[in-house]
Amino acid sequence: MQIPEHVEAKIRALAEDGKTLNCYIYDTKPMRNKIKNLQAMMPEGVEIFYAMKANPHAAFLQAAYEAGVEGIEIASLGEAKKAVAAGFTPNRLIYTGPGKSKEELTWCVEHGIRTVHIESLTEAHRLHHICEAYDKKQDILLRINADFDIHDAQTTFSGGSKKFGVDEEKLDEVLPQILNLEYLNFRGLHVYAASGVLNVDDLLKNCELVFQLTQKIEANYSHVHCDIIDFGGGFGVDYLETGYDFNPQAWAKGLEKLIHEYQLEGRHFELELGRYLAADSGFFCTEILDIKESRGKKQVICAGGINHFRRPAALGINHPMSIVWMQRDRLHPYQEQVRSEQVYFGGPLCTGADKLANDVYIEAADIGDIAVFGLAGAYGLSMSNQAFLSHEVPEEIVL
Ligand SMILES: Cc1ncc(COP(=O)(O)O)c(C=O)c1O
How far does the centroid of ligand 1 lie from the alpha carbon of residue 138, in Å? Predict the structure, then answer.
């Protein structure tokens, strides 16, 4: 991985400061450019929301705001409050995720958020009771667990038994009941297939399926119009550095064709993107504290582990990485070093699960050097086990 020059300069300046280095470095320029490029290439009707679960740091919300996203996809009241603090009015928030509490839904109704994405019949009733009490109608989308699955995605959200949405087969049982809830204003469907998808055709297959579902529903329920169709997130990034990245232009072209084929011009098509927008705007930088040879393999121990960067262990993949050489004085003559070999990187936690990378080929690394993990702007610190072992939380530095 090539570390951008200005990021490396910052790392060196911090490392030379004397304090053990363990931080995130953010530069949201790539995110701002991606939003602008997507807006320029998407067909008429596509609205881009930032899925702030990818990175809830104020700098990312500010980047999304200034680059002009339609709004924010939230999944908790905490996220709602952060989005509002960043300048997004509640009517620019869309709320997804299973298990929304009474307090969370009450906030939504009180503040008039754009849409609540209903994940079950019970949730529809819970929201309806609150709306009734406030005598306020709420726009909703119905999330569907489609009978469709992208096998090579990093995480799937539909197909099989899932906690997300209402099973497609149960639609005829559930939808009429939801349509009968007078305080809920049905606006359309939400079908999110998978996260971390690099294959454009797989994601387009999901779009086509949603269009077919839309047509089926509108044919069966003559008074229903799916004005909004939400595809969730899912655009992937090239963690494995294969050189094969997601091609948003091809996706946009494919979607345009499908909209035309299914005669769905004039509808709203929502995208809730997290990883694709945020990943390359962040680096996790952690100092190498120890290097040990253990039965034929070097164990490289860093200042931060899964408490600060959990994603590689959680997903079982290596992130792109690089070493910033600091050329520190040796502490003793027998000090181990890494030279042109495949090694293991872990953190300081007392669990074998504390893995940052495994079998990664490193040209040279010494104690005191800085291991830098790329594509760490999405699902980095906020997805980590920060409280485990009570280490100091890494600073998040914005360039
Ligand atoms: C409902 C919903 N929308 C959007 C996203 C963002 O997905 P991604 O980061 O793959 O774009 C997620 C991620 O889990 C999600 O659960």
Answer: 23
